[in-house]
């Protein structure tokens, strides 16, 4: 059988595109080399899938072409996806402002997509690896481990490089290059940091401890990151290997090897002023007691050990208060690296969007080839934005097929 559309990748973007095109009357086949559709959906959001963010705007995305995502995000918005999951009776919760998660399990989101694909008449072929994509007259042919498929159009929804054990390959980039498209530099993003030497040991001793922080990247030279305000106020988590938690994942999108992190362990508190006041009001208290009222107990104790001091507040000179202000409001640490593709949630960079239509996602001059989702150089912040991009780009492309 020949198909109007072959979608490569049964992930969030591919399934959304397939069901949209199927409802539009297209004969659609989705192929994936994995043994199960939507594996990343199942593992996302700690198994509960942060499936959208009600506050998603183009400002939540990094791309060499920041305007590219505007049109699709405007046409298929978070409330459209919420409407879809509500129609399927999925219970959800708003865990942080705007961030919607399944109340029960990420399986619910996959169930919605697979049910809709079924209703839209979409065929899904799993354990089918795509080896090559070629032009064939006005259409395309797809060479797979299960044979050759002729089709009118190919949609590349192969995702990025994160979590290779889940099926990530970089195959989408190969197809892009084959058809003359550029691929911007890729690197792991939304990824924990690893520390070395004394800081690794200190983080490991605090593994499991979390606190609210404000974090930014310090960069000496002019190297360019994604280029926006480099500052997040979100929780940090100490791990056996270094630092994680939402604040660290967010800032990792800006971090380049060699950069330092500046972490405010007491955001919103001017430690200089607060300690001077405490010294006047309760001079007989120990610093660790004061810290323990503002930070997790284990961290408060460790800070005294790290810096070899636990004085009475009365004994803090102005100079020592200033030093402690530095330790607490401007803790500087240089990560040795990140945990890399093994645990990164997303890929920064990807298929350059300059030669791709932001309306139909078709390649300029080759409308039978399209790219959607994470394979493109469009990367969201943490908090449901990446799935919203998968839904919005999938729908825009599916409607245009
Ligand atoms: P996706 O990677 O989902 O799908 C690509 C598919 O292509 C895969 O099924 C793969 O097997 C297939 N494929 C690759 N090469 C192939 C080939 N040669 N032949 C056939 N098939 C091939 N985002 C968010 O918004 N909220 C969240 O809660 C989370 N949580 C989260 C947790 C973890 C651990 C990770 C790793 C990621 C997240 N994300 C997230 C990010 C989110 O999962 C991601 O942005 C989307 O899944 C991207 O969807 P795509 O469909 O573009 O790619």
From TrEMBL:
PANTHER family in UniProt: OS12G0638800 PROTEIN (PTHR42887)
Q: Which Pfam families match?
A: HI0933_like, HI0933_like_1st
Q: Which cofactor does it need?
A: FAD
Q: Gene3D superfamilies, alphabetically?
A: FAD/NAD(P)-binding domain, HI0933 insert domain-like, Translation factors
Keyword hit for Transmembrane: no
Q: Which organism is it from?
A: Billgrantia montanilacus
Q: Where is the RsdA/BaiN/AoA(So)-like insert domain?
A: 187-346
Q: Which UniProt keywords apply?
A: FAD, Flavoprotein
What is the protein's name according to its record?
NAD(P)/FAD-dependent oxidoreductase
**Top-level lineage group:** Bacteria
RsdA/BaiN/AoA(So)-like Rossmann fold-like domain boundaries: 4-399
């Amino acid at each position: 059988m020949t198909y109007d559309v072959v979608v490569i990748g049964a992930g969030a973007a591919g399934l959304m595109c397939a069901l949209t095109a199927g409802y539009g009357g297209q004969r659609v086949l989705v192929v994936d080399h994995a043994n199960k559709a939507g594996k990343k959906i199942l593992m996302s959001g700690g198994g509960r899938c942060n499936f959208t963010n009600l506050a998603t705007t183009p400002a939540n995305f990094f791309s060499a072409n920041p305007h590219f995502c505007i049109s699709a995000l405007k046409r298929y918005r978070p409330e459209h996806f919420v409407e879809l999951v509500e129609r399927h009776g999925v219970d959800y919760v708003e865990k942080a402002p705007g961030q919607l998660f399944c109340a029960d399990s990420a399986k619910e989101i996959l169930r919605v997509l697979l049910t809709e694909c079924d209703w839209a008449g979409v065929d899904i072929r799993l354990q089918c690896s795509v080896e090559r994509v070629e032009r064939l007259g006005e259409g395309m042919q797809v060479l797979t481990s299960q044979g050759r498929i002729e089709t009118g159009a190919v949609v590349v929804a192969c995702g990025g490089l994160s979590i290779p054990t889940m099926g990530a390959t970089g195959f989408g980039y190969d197809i892009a290059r084959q058809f003359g498209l550029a691929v911007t530099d890729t690197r792991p993003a939304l990824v924990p940091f690893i520390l070395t030497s004394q800081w690794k040991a200190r983080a490991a001793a605090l593994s499991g401890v979390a606190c609210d922080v404000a974090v930014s990247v310090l960069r000496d030279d002019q190297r360019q990151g994604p280029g926006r305000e480099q500052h997040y106020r979100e929780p940090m988590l100490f791990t056996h290997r270094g630092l994680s938690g939402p604040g660290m994942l967010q800032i990792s999108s800006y971090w380049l090897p060699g950069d330092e992190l500046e972490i405010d362990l007491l955001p919103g508190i001017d430690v200089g002023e607060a300690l001077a006041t405490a010294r006047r009001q309760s001079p007989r208290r120990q610093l660790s007691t004061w810290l323990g009222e503002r930070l997790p107990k284990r961290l408060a104790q460790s800070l005294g050990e790290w810096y070899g001091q636990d004085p009475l507040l009365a004994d803090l000179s102005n100079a020592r208060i200033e030093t402690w202000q530095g330790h607490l409001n401007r803790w500087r640490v240089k990560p040795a690296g990140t945990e890399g593709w093994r645990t990164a949630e997303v890929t920064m960079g990807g298929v350059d969007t300059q030669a791709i239509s932001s309306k139909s996602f078709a390649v300029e001059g080759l409308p039978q080839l399209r790219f959607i989702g994470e394979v493109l150089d469009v990367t969201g912040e943490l908090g449901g934005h990446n799935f919203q991009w998968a839904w919005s780009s999938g729908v825009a492309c599916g409607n245009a097929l």
